[in-house]
Amino acid sequence: MSEKTRKRFIAGAVCPECQTMDTLMVYLQNNIEHVECVSCGFSKSRADDKVEAAKRSSGNVIGVFKP
């Protein structure tokens, strides 16, 4: 079963790679925030705060499960 992701553009944002304005889109996939430039293909991902906190407290975390 495929997960629907809602992609939204970030108004006024400038791509750190190609410096083009209004080409960055953001979307969530598996509770991970993804940012992608539609112009040059630059991408960056960031996990939610709970996953990041677990990584900081223990360097060998396999995963964080939500009940």
Salient structural properties:
alpha+beta, elongated, 67 residues, 4-stranded antiparallel beta sheet, 28% strand
Structural account:
It contains one helix and four strands. It is α+β, with helices and mostly antiparallel strands and 67 residues long. It has one domain (8-55). Strands 1-2-3-4 form a four-stranded antiparallel β-sheet. Strand 3 and strand 4 form a beta hairpin.
How many distinct folded domains?
1
SSE pattern, N- to C-terminal: EEEEH
Radius of gyration: 15 Å
| Proportion of beta-strand residues | 25-35%
Largest sheet: 4 strands, antiparallel
Structure classification: alpha+beta
Low-confidence stretches: none
Q: How is the largest sheet built, in terms of strand order?
A: 1-2-3-4
Described by the principal axes of the CA atoms, the overall outline is elongated
Tally of individual helices: 1
Mean pLDDT: 80
Protein name: Metal-binding protein
Pfam families: DUF2387
Organism: Lacimicrobium alkaliphilum
